[in-house]
Amino acid sequence: MATQDFLVELGTEELPPKALKPLSDAFTQGIAKGLEDAGIEFGKVEAFAAPRRLAVRVRALGDAQPDKPVEKRGPAVKAAFDDSGNPTRALTGFATSLGVTPDQLDTLETDKGAWVVYRTIEKGRPTVDLLPELVDQSLAALPIPKRMRWGAHRTEFVRPVHWAIMLYGNKVIDAPIMGLTPGNKTRGHRFHCPKSLIVPTPGDYEIVLHQEGYVIADFAERREKIRKGVTAIAKTEAGGEAVIDEDLLDEVTALNEWPVPLMGRFEERFLDVPAEALISSMKEHQKYFHVVSGDGKMLPLFITVANLESKDPKQVISGNEKVIRPRLSDAAFFYDTDRRTRLEDRIDQLKPIVFQDKLGSLYHKSVRVAALAKKIADAIGSDPQLAERAAMLAKTDLVTEMVLEFTDLQGIMGQYYAANDGENEDVASALNEQYMPRFAGDDLPTTLTGCAVAIADRLDSLVGLFGINQPPSGTRDPFALRRASLGVLRIIIERELPLDLQACCEWAEETFTVLTEQNTASTVVDYMLERFRAHYEEQGINAEVYLAVHARRPTGPLDFDRRVKAVEAFRQLPEAQALAAANKRVSNILTKQGGEDIGETIDESLLQDAAEKTLAEQIRKQADKVLPLFEKGDYAAALTALANLRQPVDSFFDEVMVMAEDDATRNNRLAMLNSLRNLFLRVADISVLPTSA
């Protein structure tokens, strides 16, 4: 099959920078999937994305779909011919529907008899005929929340589309896309090359744009060029280090076709403002990278990335310096103004701010969280008074000028203002740490006071919203309760806090007077324990391991985690499958014979066979060994010890009949099995584990 490279480019007005990469990825994946579904052979698929263009190049694309055999079954041979051997109406109707004569049909022998069949080869469609439809389908499926129209066009897209390329080899596919007739012409940089450029073949695409058009079309190449340029200019011009936020780097890459890093300065007096406020102002509003010294201190410098090569870069730098000065002046003004009012004097300002209609204001939430944090702090060995104080101040920075302007600084500014007010160091830290972890993999609170407030704040939201029947549903989770649950679990586990979720949720429930749902605390605990499943799957731990532990419903996250790790280690042992199978067998036997009514006291005088005597002795010996380990929470060592029971358990089932005719003997054997199973149940229900590879 002959192959050619294929190129499709959509030229637009400037695309939303935060959406550029997702749009490019989706467009590329859509083209690739369309080709796969069509059965067309192709090589490497390459994506290109810049502010004014989305493009995809497919290497070594086959010129047609492969031919494929087609077989259609008709009537049974018995029904296809009459007694004289002439075609029946059933056969002639089948042949006519296919546009053939009966003598062009074959027969197919099957277990159920012979059938008339039509066999042919369906010729594959030319690729050039399929491509316009594939491109349209991929564009229609792009993740665009709101599409727009422009001019007199009825076409809709995220931004107006002004040109299009569709090239297969050196041939233009001129079927309309997005209301335009494609050609082989692209456009260069808006200022450096404001004209059309011919792209002879798909392989020339990025070369033409780079050499003639002042456009680096490859997103990844442009991103790396910006990273190296920003890093180099910080080092060579200031002896410092540029701090490159990956999300900001993506956004800047999406804003520039021909990036040129430039360094500017701001007045040193602004360094008296907290660095986070300066960074937020530069990053969010101006898309600047900040620079730090070798010891990590912020320097009065910024790096901007211009989308052109200026003949007078000093003018560009000067313009950026003029723009950032009022921004930083605002931040300095807000900082000075906010520090004149103590945080504790802002508490009453939280009363008009609604947290949730039925659950009251942020003031009401603060009072509840303070009471809960006090109890949690006491349970983890922290200072309850500090936790209570921190919780009451926790939301007060939301009404400061700085946070009203820069919302991403909530908590961060609270810590600065609390320190300025002379609050205890742990209290000040807790105002920032209450929001930790802000996202998956984020840092956790470092102080116990911060842990208490962070846990209390999240549990208040969980218990309150579940208690008024407002739990998350499907993809709808406006209060981010899933993230709140995972945050609580992470803090408790990674900080090794001796907290029980049931107790904590019951404490939270006591702070409310408006809850309408029954058993709210238990419902919330069940919801939170269910979050463990995805948590462990991300760590590569088998779902059955989680289910084995969950079956015992331990409500202490740290205890739950230790059990999971122990069962996961046990599962790797050679004895694990056999013992899991034995536990499953024991569980089935005990369930049929009375379940919980069966005791676990073994009468040694009733032991008859050598195998059951050995098992009884080994159960007693292992119990003496593992019970102290269970008390210490050393589940891994306990399960490793219990793995030694495999041989006596196997021998017991091979040589002993559990359901003996004598009632006393039978009940004694059931008690022994119950004693065996209960040893494992101290950790998890290992009968849930898979018993075959």
Summarize the structure.
Tetramer of two alpha and two beta subunits. The chain is α+β, with helices and mostly antiparallel strands and 693 residues long.
In DSSP terms, counting alpha (H) and pi (I) runs of 4 or more, how many helices?
Answer: 25
Task: For the largest sheet, list the strands in their spatial order.
Answer: 2-3-1-7-8
Uncertain spans: none
Chain-averaged pLDDT: 93
CATH architecture classification name of the largest domain: Orthogonal Bundle
Radius of gyration based on Cα positions: 36 Å
Largest sheet report:
5 strands, antiparallel
Terminal CA distance reads: 43 Å
Class from helix and strand fractions: alpha+beta
CATH class of the largest domain: Mainly Alpha
Beta percentage is 5-15%
Number of domains: 5
What name does CATH use for the topology of the largest domain?
A: Hypothetical protein af1432
Helix content: 40-55%
User: Given the C-alpha coordinates, what overall shape results?
Assistant: flat
Q: Give the total of beta strands.
A: 16
Subunit structure: Tetramer of two alpha and two beta subunits.
Protein name: Glycine--tRNA ligase beta subunit
Catalytic activity: tRNA(Gly) + glycine + ATP = glycyl-tRNA(Gly) + AMP + diphosphate
Subcellular location: Cytoplasm
